[in-house]
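By way of example, what follows is a protein record of this kind.
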Amino acid sequence: MEVESCCQALLKRILPEVDPQKSGYCVDVGVGTFAFYCELFAQLGFTTIAVEPSPVKKLKKLCDRAPFN
């Protein structure tokens, strides 16, 4: 199993236990180019702050379709 998929699988199980009310924020600094943790956090229902100084096209498209509150 690749490191990224393993980390995302762990976060998917751990985050809901750490904050079951989803009252906190997930912060993703250096979002990257292929393993978008911010997407996982949003899918889990967590408010997320994502920072990427050099976004790739795939990330820009992801942000374009993301619902912002």
Summary: The helical segments are 3-18, 37-43, 57-65.
